[in-house]
Amino acid sequence: MDPRISGKELSEMNEQTAPVEAQTTALEEIAQERMDCSPAVESMAAPYHVASETAKDVRRMAAGAGIALGGKLMGRCVALAGNVVLAHILGPVAFGLYAIGWTITKIATMLTPLGLDSGVIRFASPELGQNPCRVKGAITQSLEISLASGLTLGLALYFVAPWLGENVFHQTSLITVFRCFAFAFPLVSCLKVAAAATRVSQRMKFSVLTEDAGQPAAALLLILIFYFFGWKLGGALAAFDFSFGIALILAIYYIHRLFPEVSLKSIRSDLGRRELLFFSLPTSLSLMFGILLLWVDRLFVGYYRSPAEAGVYHAASQLSVALAVILSAFGAIVNPMIARLYHQGKKERLEELYRVSTKWSLYLSLPVFLVMCFVPRETVSVIFGKPYAAGWLLLPILGMGQLINSGTGAVGGLLVMTGHQNALSILSGVTFLANVGLAVILVPRFGMAGAAAGTALTIALLSVASIFMARRFLNLWPYDGRYWKGVLATGVASAGLLLLRLLPFTSPGLLLTAAVFVSGCLFSGVLLGLGLDPEDKEFIRLIGDNAFRWAKG
Fold first, then answer.
1. Of 67, 62, 66, which is closest to residue 24 (Cα–Cα)?
2. Each residue of 445-458: b (16+ CB within 10 Å) or e?
3. What's the pLDDT band for 546 if we cut at 50, 70, 90?
């Protein structure tokens, strides 16, 4: 026994952390008993490698993805509601100013965690339940470094705000906007790492309650409260800052609940900052370049075009990113599992996890994308209002890039968690530079449509190149013959939406509602009619069970 840990403390730690795996453990025991008693099960599953261990991974992924996907979609809906409220309160011009400041903040705060939101998962996940000193070191060191980084960059933005507002964007009103957002830098940075730390437990509930849904809900509530007192743009900026502070406090509380070793002074940190940063810094570059692909286009629209156009473009971009939320939900649960399986050398289980998660990331994205393609004008105008309807053409363009991104699954997390973060950083940097070049060429000539086309093209390039990189380095490929059902379902849903467009709808809201219903029902109906694969049935059942159990509390 480690002399630094008393027997009493270890007993307390075990009692407190035992529930972390209780849910999936019970499922695994039941499934294992059935498989041990029936040799036929293994032979039936052999063609698709759905053996007992792989089935456990699918169950664990479904258990986490059900909560993560539901929570992220809930959070995305709340965040979208906040943007809709702001769009109506502020108008296109003021909303455009807010969007420019928000975009700079989002880009900068992807850098401030220094990749430690991935680093804490990479180093803590394999050691969970085995080496509390390493777990404590990964969590505490990551939080401390991200706080220092956020403070440094926040101060930098505060002092360069006059230069950015006057000389770059030629809008003096942006000075105050930038300075208000600067206060949020350390809060956003720490929240990203703290929320990632809770996911080490492979329990998604806590990340949902803090980063995914908790912060957007707090922001929306504060926006409404400040607006009641007549504080519009200033209220929106204050709501952004305070909501991240509230979410961070809650995340720290959950960390102490999930990992009691973090609070025990007798457990010393056993992870050096150099080891942590050696992995995390290259990861931060790949993450930063990947996020820049999503958001830098908004800055070019703000630079070359009017604030009103920046507001319209921001609205359309927010809608298209809904597809990325689906992929992010899978990454939240899959990445810790990838780290553990790769560390244990279980390649077959890793490959099947990669395939199943990629397939369902694509399947869940396709019905949403079809709605964006067939009723884009109605989607933008109903959600954001008629002043933003000019951005309807952007929606299918940006949506195509995000669909390809979702269709390649959690390949970015796969490369990072298997030690190929340097190669991914180089690839991300090259595609980011390509995006900047396309923006410089296309935005002055084609405006918002040029920005959307350049962004969609480079996102697709990064996604496709990443899956071939994973095939080269890891000999893993996410696609097989099981995808034909999804292709047929897409064709049927597209035909149904095309017929729907021929009907004489007088209300845009009614047409949008009907399109969502037709797309979702036809796509899922065809999949069910053709018959789901065994792992798909288990995946859907457990997503529903866990989402219902989480909703009941």
1. 62
2. eebbbbbbbbbbbb
3. low
Tokens of 475: 């000999």
What is the per-residue DSSP string for 431-443? HHHHHHHHHHHHH
Residues 6+ apart with CB under 8 A from 410: 327, 330, 331, 334, 335, 338, 354, 357, 358, 361
Which residues have CB under 8 Å from 428's CB, separation 6+? Answer: 285, 286, 287, 288, 289, 290, 293, 462
Distance CA 328, CA 336 (A): 13
- pLDDT tens-place string over residues 273-289: 777 888 788 777 777 77
> What pLDDT sits at residue 235?
92
Residue 63 has pLDDT above 60, yes or no: no
What region, left, alpha or beta, does residue 115 occupy, with left being phi > 0 and alpha being psi -120 to 50 degrees?
left
Contact 58/353 with Cβ under 8 angstroms?
A: yes
Q: For residues 337 and 345, give the distance between their C-alpha atoms in angstroms, rounded to a whole number.
A: 12
pLDDT of 38 over the 70 cut: no
The predicted-structure confidence for 171-180, as pLDDT tens digits, reads as follows 898 999 999 9
Alpha-carbon span 351 to 337, nearest angstrom: 12
Cα-based distances in Å from 482 to 168, 410, 416: 51, 18, 27
Q: Provide the terminal-to-terminal Cα distance of the chain, rounded to the nearest Å.
A: 37
Residues 519-536, mean pLDDT to the nearest whole number:
88
Q: What is the distance between the alpha carbons of residues 297 and 456, in angstroms, rounded to a whole number?
A: 10
Task: Determine the Cα–Cα distance for residues 506 and 528; give it in Å rounded to an integer.
Answer: 33
Residue where the block lists tokens 């050096």: 272
Token code pair at residue 156: 């930098």
Residue in the block written with tokens 């950083």: 425
Count the Cβ atoms, other than its own, within 10 Å of residue 266. Answer: 11
Residue with tokens 């490959």: 351
Structure tokens, 329? 């939900």
pTM here is 0.66
Q: What is the pLDDT of residues 460-505, one digit of tens each?
A: 999 999 999 999 999 999 888 888 899 999 999 999 999 999 998 8
CA distance 306 to 344: 54
Looking at per-residue pLDDT, the higher value among 549 and 435 belongs to: 435
What letters, b where the CB count within 10 A reaches 16 and e where it falls short, cover 227-261? beeeebbebbbbbbbbbbbbbbebbbebbeebbbb
Confidence class of residue 37 from pLDDT cuts 50, 70 and 90? very low
